[in-house]
Design a protein that fits this description.
alpha/beta; 7-stranded mixed sheet; 7 helices; 7 strands; disordered N terminus; binds 5-O-phosphono-beta-D-ribofuranosylamine
Length: about 210
Amino acid sequence: MWAVNTTELATTPDTRARTIVVLASGQGSLLKAIAAGAGDSYTVGAVVCDRHCPAADWAAGQGLPCFVVGLAPGADRAEWNRRLAETVAAVEPDLVVSAGFMKILGPEFIDRFHGSILNTHPALLPSFPGAHAVADALAYGVTVTGCTVHEIDEGVDTGRIVAQVAVPVLPGDSQEVLHERIKVEERALIVTVLQAADPMHPTITG
Ligand code: GRF
């Protein structure tokens, strides 16, 4: 019979790099920053996209495992969520990061990875949830907006807030200019969170 030293098991810290799966739909600048920040704390196990996009092309060009799980117009969304979950689960990730993924994840996906899915959003939640956060913030006339990393739950950008950074709105800002200023902070913030000892509950200072 094997003898197991339970004291050692209980006290030895887990120093293994976490495996993360990145979900993306667009240009992939967040994905690139996440990949550049990989190292001792995490590795990118795969990139999963809902469409052919620059993020998918870049991942494939880097030799990262990349899967496109498309949702045809009118197709069964629950079935798509299950296919997406199967694809992600095959990588056995410790963490799933939605980084510019432009589809809402359903319960068939969320239940599978409950408590280990993060999203990055280009506004200071709970203000301006949804797909038009930057335009909505500009239209409202706020002078400060920002970005939020939050846990994904079944609402639209309603999950527990994990980390935030404020970004000024400057006179004359267009949506594009403001979004790019936010994305500079978004890229840094998601990497900081992922490199934390406990990315779901990071201690971020400064
Ligand atoms: C980010 O601002 C993200 O929060 C939003 O879309 C943008 C993605 O940018 N949902 P990119 O494709 O990673 O460059």
